[in-house]
Structure formats: C-alpha cells, structure tokens
Amino acid sequence: MFFDSDLLMSALRALTPILLAALGGAVCERAGVFNIGLEGMMLMGCFTAVATSWFTGSPWLGVLAAALASAAYSLILAVGAVTLRGDAVVLGIALNLLAVGLTSFLLRTVFGVQGTFDDPSLAGLPLVGGFSPLAYLAWASVGVAALMLSRHVWGLRLRGVGEAPDAAATLGVSPVKYQYAAVLVSGVLCGLAGAQLALGNVTLFSENMTAGRGWIAVVAVMLGRALPFGVLLAALLFGVAEAAGFRLQGLGLPQQATDAAPYVVTLGALFLTTARRRRRTPATSTTADPTPTGAVS
Amino acid sequence: MSRRSRRTLPLAAMSVLLVAGATACNAAAKDDASADSSASAGGKSFTLVTPDAVGQNEFLKLAVTGVEAAAKAHDGTSKVFQSTDTASQQQNVQAAVDAAPDVVVLVGFEFADLVAQQAAAHPKQQFLMIDACTTKAFDNVSCEVFREHEGVFLAGAEAGLLTKSGKVGAVDVLDTPVFRRFSDPFAAGAQHVAPKTKTGTRFVGGQSPFDDSARAKEQANDLLSDGYDQLMAAAAAGNYGVFEAAKAKGAFAYGVDVNQCPSAPGTVVDNVIKRTDVAVEKGIEQVLGGQTGTTTSYGLKESGISLTGLEKGVDSSQCVIAKHPDVLKKVTALRDQIVSGELTVDDPAAAS
What we know:
The complex is a heterodimer. By secondary structure, chain A is an all-alpha fold. Chain A has a single domain (5-280), classed as ABC transporter involved in vitamin B12 uptake, BtuC. Chain A has 11 helices and 2 strands; from the N terminus they run H-H-H-H-E-H-H-H-H-E-H-H-H. Chain A starts with a helix and ends in a 17-residue tail after the last helix. By secondary structure, chain B is α/β, with parallel strands linked by helices. Chain B has 2 domains: 37-146, Response regulator (Rossmann fold, 3-Layer(aba) Sandwich); 148-273 and 303-340, Response regulator (Rossmann fold), CATH 3.40.50. Chain B has a 6-stranded parallel β-sheet with strand order 2-1-3-4-5-11, with helices on both faces. In chain B, helix 2 links the parallel strand 1 (45-50) and strand 2. The relative contact order of chain B is 0.12. The chains are: A mainly alpha, B alpha/beta. At the A-B interface, helix 1, helix 4, helix 10 and helix 11 of A face helix 1, strand 7, helix 8 and helix 9 of B.
C-alpha cells in the first residue's frame, strides 16, 4: 500500500518545522516586512535548543531558550529593516549566512566538536500520540494566526500597517511597533521550528541542519499568499511530496527524480494558483504580497 | 529613493562585515603547527593539508595520527594545515608548497585540481593524495585510494546473518557510483550469506544531503516501516538520524569510517572503518623510498579497510557485534577469502 499511516506520519513530521517557520514568515509578510531570514533564525533555534537541553537536562527549557534566542536574533532584522529602513532581503541573507557561521563556531567553542553534536543522553521532546507537543502547537498556531489576522484588532492593524503604513500612521497606529512585533513573533516561531527540528524530528545538532527548510518556508509563505491556512496547505504539499518521494525511491524511481518532487509540485501549484487568481480578479490587486515568481531557493 | 539607498548601503556593508567576521573566526582556527618546526635538524618534514577543520572529524584525526607517526619514525617534523573552505584550501596548499617539506599530504577529492596545478609548477615537490587522485598522472604525485566496498560487503554479510525479517537496507548520501560503494556491496554481502535476503536503498539527496539528519531519519523510517531490520548508514551527519530511527524501532544499524557504536550503543552493530593513518604512514614510506607517481589501493588485504569487529578492542567498542562471536567467525572467514583473492567484491564505481 502506497498511502498508509506511516507515510502520513512521515509527511506530518517533515511538515512541522516548515509550518512553524512559514507562519512566522506569513506574519512578517502581512506587516510588510519581507523575511527571508527564516532559515538562519531556525538554525539559531536548533543550536540554542540543543545546548540548553544538554546543560539543563530539560528539553522544555531548550524550547523556551530557542524561542527567546531566535527572537533576539530576529531583532537584527527588525532594527535593520524597520528602524534603519535597510533592505530586508540583504538583511535576511546576512542572517542566514551569519547563523551558519555562528552556530558552527559555537558548536566548536561550547561542545568542542565539529560537524555534529550527538549524545545518547541528550534529552529530546517526548512524543504524544506519535508527535512532539510542538507539532500540536504548530497546528493550533494556524488557527490562532488566522483568527488574529481576520478578527482581532491587533491583526487588523497589523494588516493595515502592511498594506498602507502611512494611512495606518495617520490613524494613530504605529507601523514601527507593529512591524517590530511581527518580526519578533516570526523569531519566536522560527525558534520553535528549530527546537522541533533539533529536539523533535531528531535529537542532535549538526552544522547547517536546517538544510533549506527555511527557504521552503519562504516559498510556502508565497504559495499560501501569507494566509495561515494557505501556508498550512503549502507546507502540507511539501511534506507529502517529500515523504512520497522517499517511498517512490523504494519503488525504483531514481533519487534525482524524487529530489525534484517538492519543486515540481511547487511550480505546478504556482501555475494553478496564479492562473485562478488572474481569472478571478482581472486588474484590482490591493494585497501587499510580492509576486511569487522564481523565488525558489 | 536616493536617500533610502544611501541608508541601505552602510547596512549592507555591515552585514557583509558581520559575515566576514564569522568567517574570520573560522579561519583563525587553522594553521596550528602540531610539532615544533624549528627543532628539526636534518629530519624529514611533512605537511598535511585537510579539506575541513579536523576537530572531531575522526577520519581527518586519523590522517593527523598517520602524519605524526611518520614524523616520529623519521625523527622529523609534521605540520597540519586545516582548511575551512575553498579559499583556505587554496591558501593552505600554497603555503604548504612554499615551505617545501619532503612530502605534502592532502586528504580528499577537493584537492585534485589544486595538486595538478602545483605538481606541474613544482616538479621537485612530492605530493601524496589520500582518498583521491589527479585525473592526469604526475611523476611527483602519489595517490592512495580505498576499496570501501570490500568492508561494506563484510558488514552486509553480518547483516545477512543477523536479520530476522530477511530484509536489509542502506541509507546512502547520493545516487552516484562512488557513494553506491556503501549500499550495493551491503546488499551483495547479505545475499552472499543468505541468498533470499531482500534488499533496498534510500538516498538522502535534497538540498544538503550531507547535513540533513532529519531527512536521513525519515528515509530510515521508510525502510523500517517496510520491515527492514538491518540498516547500513552511509549518510554523513545523517547517520545519527538513521541510528535514532533504528533505535526507536529496535532495529540495527552499521556505521562508517570510524567506530560510531558509542553514539547508539545496542543499536550500531559494526562499522566499516577506513584506516587513513595506515595509508598516510605507508604512503610516506613509499614516497621517501623513491616509489612515486603511483596509485596504491587499500582494502582488506592492506589493512586499509576493516570492520570494528575485526580489529583489536572489539569488546570495549560498545558494538553489538561483540556479542556475536559466531557471526564474527564467519565474517573473518569471508575476509580471508577476499584477502586471498578467492572471492572478489564488485565495485560499483569501477565502471565509471
């Protein structure tokens, strides 16, 4: 049987870190900050989670520390892009590069190892019903984010800031405050994504272990048009494509072909969604989302 | 607009500086001379250039051991230049050649082109390449390559003897002939001892196949959910993911390069080890003895490739195989057959 519960579990495990990071990216996107530093923020979360869990013996403290550390790290983007009005793309790339160097350096100084830190006594997150508690948190966050953005005054103001910052400012809503908050929220979510990857999916830290998941999250934000449920669908698409790819290898499809599966799926979905959007809304485009073209890592 | 871009520039410069700063930190860790170079009087001098930082990289650590042993044997000195990226690899090779030691030892395929350039420019300098070779032969470049497939075959035989489900699989890095040396012979070895064994391989692939332990773990899970109970782990950093998956399902795994049993005691059965130290030491002997420009292959016969279970210290290795002396006995017999040439292992990379 091709589609069985193992495949679904595998897909959902693959999806969780991407979903958390992508939700963070979506919140930023809605506030008008294009955040492509998800990969780097996530990697900082991975390292902090593992280091804290190792030294305190508590994976929960690891999760907390990861969220705080990534939020602090995301301040670089907040200060740079919001206060100093720097280019968010340049800053995002810098965040990603810096995270790889910084975590590798810290791995060496803190643990005295290179490449991978792995110890049988490193405490990972417990499994509840086959998933880590962070997975449930991720799914719940989708609903919370959707509700906040569509109903709550904070969410409405955040969207207002993203779509027309000057108009928001004249109405007494501080764009700076909301954009800072959005970037910090994305930092927290990426920290959780990192903790999920390093203490949930596996229990170890290895250099560059995010391995492009942050970039996939960026694409998920675009594909889901920064809507929480859209992002969930996009992330699900990636998760299923990846898990199915592994299984297709077992059926004899070459690895090079299965590797391409998530990207083929992305391209296909992009064509479908843009075609549908064009037909539905001929000329009026008021949303602040960037044109999702060719932005695959 | 112009105001905006003016404000952007210093920021961009700042981020570049930040990144450069991080790289500088890495670069600061290189160039540690492991022996006192000024003390040498008449002894031989050897310089080892590594493609990555040595740190806990067991494979590179062994190369350092080899160079140090050679220096000791010749009452000479050894230096280790650790690279961190392509740029520092180039600088380190240049620095090594400029100092003109008796032998420059380089580990890894990364150096093939650099050595080819340097060997042509400095015909009197002797080079020793480990685990790779230049495409064109040079009189002053000696190479040493490994026949990993022989060791993987033996690990596969262990798996074939130990499997309860009759299914043994491998999680490999990439689907290329060189990496297939870690999966195809595993299947062949298992089927040699138990012809009915079912085999399967998953390749990690993806954006960074060597770092992605979460992906490797899912690949292993896919095999495990299909009933596979013995997994060859040849996925670099992903190996730890494979071990975690096997441990969770009570299955068994096999490591590579060095003894990986301590990272998952009770799960890792055995390891295909590469004795880089032996290769480096023997290679230096050969070069000093005047036999240069040749390629030497190391396998079971030359003790360049082995299994943890076949080496001294099995009992303290934390490997599962230590509890199966009967299996080890059969595998030892197989090794002897391969060493004597009675049995040959197909090399997936030979056709290329």
